[in-house]
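As agreed, record minuted below.
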Amino acid sequence: MRNPDSLRDQKSGDTPQGLALAMTAYVLWGFLPLYMKALAHVPAAEVVAHRIIWSVPVAAIVLIVMRRTDALRAALRNPRMLVMGCVTAALISINWGIYVWAISSGHTLDAALGYYINPLFSIFLGAVILGERPSRAQSFAIALAAAAVVVLIVESGTLPWPALGLMFSWGFYALAKKSLPIGPNQGFLLEVLILLLPALGYVVYLLGTGQNHFLAGGAQADTWLLIGCGLVTAVPLLFYANGAKLLRLSTIGLLQYVAPTMIFLIAVFVFDEPFDRARMIAFPMIWAALLIYSLALLRQMRSAPSR
């Protein structure tokens, strides 16, 4: 269920505050690989556990300051809401795990590819599961993106599973999130609260078996970087959640390419990942598909009757 206020804001036009908040979120997401690369020596599961643990106080403080804890308390008492929250929590934790592993293992280009394809996969899910009818241009864009993945498989001889894993986990997360009838800030805190006990249990296990990087002797930098995972996880999400309410859907649709473009540039020019022939063919196909999708989206928004 969407907030009626957010729909009114999106139909009335963009606001400078919304643009600033959303751009801040996407730029922070774009720089996130640099932070995660500093933790490349830490197993992805441990990084994800700390992303969960340290996101809880950040998200809780925001809700308390905004005085929006009532909906969260109601959700925690609602069994159906908790089940739905468990589904979205599981999907977002899988997405985080794949992303952290991709950055640390030299697959940052695959991460960029996965997030480029996300909006097209969401259209596909809407058509298959929700019965939505994509336009001809959108259908062609989906087909072009699928062809690009086939090119990658044929040319490289391997399945780009990090990209596909990110695409599937985020696509189904966004789909499930539509069924979670609480605000985005409350929903995020609900998800990390659901994941908190498993994450704490895993960190305690690592501490007990001596496999920990958190609080490890002589590794203070690791400890602070793991604590900082809460900020780099929660802050962009909260910026985005509040900025999206003040922007049109078409603007959000175009801004979502900022982060994967930054990730792509960092992968090629900072991490020096190989941009081989398969990617030289596939990425332009993806960019063409996104251009077609974006133009179709803008046409739809312009032709939609105002209310």
